[in-house]
Amino acid sequence: MGRQKSDLDRAPLDGEWVKSSRSAGNGNACVQLMALPGGVALGDSKRPDLAPLRCTRTELAVFLRAAKAGLFDRP
User: Fold this and answer.
1) DSSP character string of 22-71
2) 32 contacts 45 by C-beta, under 8 angstroms
3) Distance between CA 23 and CA 43 in Å, rounded?
């Protein structure tokens, strides 16, 4: 694990969680993001007791491209 990733893992979660505008009618059932220095934290609003996933902006971009390409679609 490189310096950037280890710094990200230690960054405090003291920012504001942001939810998708499409989650308006779903109450607390959504993924939320928080900007961190060097990356983002991803949390599950219905399970705030779980530690959020932390990833660099590059890791998030790669994941989003793969999801948009259908690489995680079920048969």
Assistant:
1) GGGGGTT-SEEEEEETTEEEEEETT-TTSPPEEEEHHHHHHHHHHHHTTT
2) yes
3) 14
Among residues 44, 40, 68, 45, the alpha carbon closest in space to that of 55 is found at 40
Dist CA 1 CA 59 (whole Å): 13
Q: Evaluate whether 53 touches 39 at the Cβ level (below 8 Å).
A: no
Asked if 39 contacts 9 with a C-beta cutoff of 8 angstroms, the reply is no
pLDDT digits (tens, 9 = 90+) for 25-71: 656 678 899 999 989 999 988 888 999 999 999 999 999 999 999 99
Q: For residue 49, count CB atoms less than 10 angstroms from its CB and return exposed for 0-12, middle for 13-18, buried for 19 or more.
A: exposed
